[in-house]
């Protein structure tokens, strides 16, 4: 039976975090009324002229440096001609001949724990198109040009990936780098990071690539994984049936877990590229590039090493926390307030990760402030609340970002602080449970756990377990 190998390359579009569009001063803010963030330039009106946003060049070059690319210090823009309703000019301003970044790479960890280098063919700057809004009840489509002209970088990988796992590892690493740079929030659900998958299959051992297809409409890592696995099987089925795989662009329907053909795959000549006559070349000086290199922020590898030395975190904890910029930011801010890095790490690693999973959220969607996490840790350090109550309060902090100090006060959750009243309660429980007392005195030390539980029940969970244990040991002697 023939064995097949999957060959995958990605085109990743990242919306940059500029406040204005690439060639005009319209807002890039997500949402808003349809066609509210528009002007003659981004709607392609005759006679309007583009003016390049310098911040776009800076973000693109910063991503290139962080992904080991060579920066093209004399680059230019080209026109890519195509005729779709969401493209108001009937062309897109992009880069073909001299992209700003070339010949880079990033390192990923494969599913078997091995390191693998994924090549980056190029990174180029371009403008986004508008968005078609389809009428669910009719056959009409409307166009919203708010997104038209939003600045993008397109990161084109080499065809170096061989599985869905490698693709997800590559995308996660790429997203982390871009987020650390502050170049984009990379929110897949808002379309600020989008991936097109170029996939082909070939017999194991073959040197030539098979016929590739490109899949679009992939807005989550789960959808990307399902689309890759489905397209792999579709192509293998065609080959085994003696049929031909057609080079085409396919649209993935994640609800139906099925892709369908959109159009035949265009090549560069179909777009009739030519240099944009309205934009001058971009000249990047040695001084500007050196300054940009000097301003590159601390990325994950450096941050992870610092967490291990400065905060004495285990390597595993440091790797998980620095694996997402939002989590790293929360960790550092909370630690700066409460000066207890290990406890901050524990709350992030255990309870936060649990609730993120239960709510189907990514780490960059952590909903609470570091200030409230620090306050919760201080409440436990001061023994104002016990660990059981702390978990209860944290669920409210996670869900609603409540102030834990206010919440504890309003709900009467403070630890019972009157040792005399607590001792009296424990004495009563000891008197009412002679069998547990006898078990403990006969060497069954675990019997004390039952008495602790009864005390916690009697105090509605608001006593300090360590204090209960201490008093019980004294009484049982």
Automatic annotation (TrEMBL):
Catalytic function, reaction form: L-glutamyl-tRNA(Gln) + L-glutamine + ATP + H2O = L-glutaminyl-tRNA(Gln) + L-glutamate + ADP + phosphate + H(+); L-aspartyl-tRNA(Asn) + L-glutamine + ATP + H2O = L-asparaginyl-tRNA(Asn) + L-glutamate + ADP + phosphate + 2 H(+)
InterPro entries (UniProt xref): Asn/Gln-tRNA_amidoTrfase_suB/E (IPR017959), Asn/Gln-tRNA_Trfase_suB/E_cat (IPR006075), Asn/Gln_amidotransferase (IPR018027), Asn/Gln_tRNA_amidoTrase-B-like (IPR003789), GatB (IPR004413), GatB_C_1 (IPR042114), GatB_Yqey_C_2 (IPR023168), Gln-tRNA_amidoTrfase_suB_CS (IPR017958)
Keywords: ATP-binding, Ligase, Nucleotide-binding, Protein biosynthesis
EC number: 6.3.5.-
Domain Asn/Gln amidotransferase positions: 329-476
Domain of life: Bacteria
Keyword Transmembrane (UniProt): no
Protein task: Allows the formation of correctly charged Asn-tRNA(Asn) or Gln-tRNA(Gln) through the transamidation of misacylated Asp-tRNA(Asn) or Glu-tRNA(Gln) in organisms which lack either or both of asparaginyl-tRNA or glutaminyl-tRNA synthetases. The reaction takes place in the presence of glutamine and ATP through an activated phospho-Asp-tRNA(Asn) or phospho-Glu-tRNA(Gln).
Family: Belongs to the GatB/GatE family. GatB subfamily.
PANTHER family with a match to the protein in the record: GLUTAMYL-TRNA GLN AMIDOTRANSFERASE SUBUNIT B MITOCHONDRIAL AND PROKARYOTIC PET112-RELATED, GLUTAMYL-TRNA(GLN) AMIDOTRANSFERASE SUBUNIT B, MITOCHONDRIAL
Quaternary structure and interacting proteins, as annotated: Heterotrimer of A, B and C subunits.
Protein name: Aspartyl/glutamyl-tRNA(Asn/Gln) amidotransferase subunit B
Native species: Jutongia hominis
Designated gene of the protein: gatB
């Amino acid at each position: 039976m023939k064995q097949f190998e999957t060959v995958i390359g990605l085109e990743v579009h990242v919306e940059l975090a500029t406040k204005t569009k690439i060639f005009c001063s319209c807002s890039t803010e997500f949402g808003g009324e349809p066609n509210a963030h528009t002007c003659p330039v981004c709607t392609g009106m005759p006679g309007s002229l583009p003016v390049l946003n310098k911040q776009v060049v800076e973000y693109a070059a910063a991503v290139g440096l962080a992904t080991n690319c060579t920066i093209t210090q004399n680059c230019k823009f080209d026109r890519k001609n195509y005729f779709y309703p969401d493209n108001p000019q009937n062309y897109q301003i992009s880069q073909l001949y001299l992209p700003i970044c070339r010949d880079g790479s990033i390192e990923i960890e494969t599913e078997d724990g091995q390191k693998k280098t994924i090549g980056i063919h190029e990174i180029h700057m371009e403008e986004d198109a508008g968005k078609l809004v389809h009428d669910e009840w009719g056959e009409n489509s409307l166009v919203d040009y708010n997104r038209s002209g939003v600045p993008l970088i397109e990161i084109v990988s080499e065809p170096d990936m061989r599985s869905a796992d490698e693709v997800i590892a590559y995308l996660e690493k790429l997203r982390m780098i871009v987020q650390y740079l502050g170049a984009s929030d990379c929110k897949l659900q808002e379309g600020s990071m989008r991936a097109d998958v170029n996939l082909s299959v070939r017999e194991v051992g073959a040197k030539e690539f098979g016929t590739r297809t490109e899949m679009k409409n992939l807005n989550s890592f789960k959808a990307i994984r399902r689309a890759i696995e489905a397209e792999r099987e579709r192509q293998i089925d065609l080959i085994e049936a003696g049929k031909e795989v057609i080079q085409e662009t396919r649209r993935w329907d994640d609800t139906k877990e099925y892709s369908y053909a959109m159009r035949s795959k265009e090549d560069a000549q179909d777009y009739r590229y030519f240099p944009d006559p309205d934009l001058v070349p971009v000249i990047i000086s040695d001084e500007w590039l050196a300054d940009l290199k000097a301003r590159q922020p601390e990325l994950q590898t450096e941050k992870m090493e610092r967490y291990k030395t400065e905060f004495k975190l285990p390597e595993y904890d440091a790797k998980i926390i620095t694996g997402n910029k939002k989590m790293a930011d929360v960790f550092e801010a909370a630690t700066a307030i409460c000066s207890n890095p290990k406890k901050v790490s524990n709350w992030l690693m255990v309870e936060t990760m649990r609730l993120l999973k239960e709510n189907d959220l990514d780490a960059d969607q952590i909903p609470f402030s570091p200030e409230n996490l620090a306050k919760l840790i201080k409440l436990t350090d001061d023994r104002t609340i016990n660990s059981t109550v702390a978990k209860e309060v944290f669920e409210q902090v996670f869900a609603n970002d409540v102030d834990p100090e206010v919440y504890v006060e309003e709900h009467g959750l403070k630890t019972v602080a009157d040792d005399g009243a607590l001792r009296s309660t424990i004495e009563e429980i000891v008197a009412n449970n002679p069998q547990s007392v006898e078990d403990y005195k006969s060497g069954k030390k675990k019997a004390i756990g039952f008495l602790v539980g009864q005390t916690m029940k009697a105090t509605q969970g608001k006593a300090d377990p360590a204090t209960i244990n201490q008093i019980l040991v004294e009484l049982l002697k």
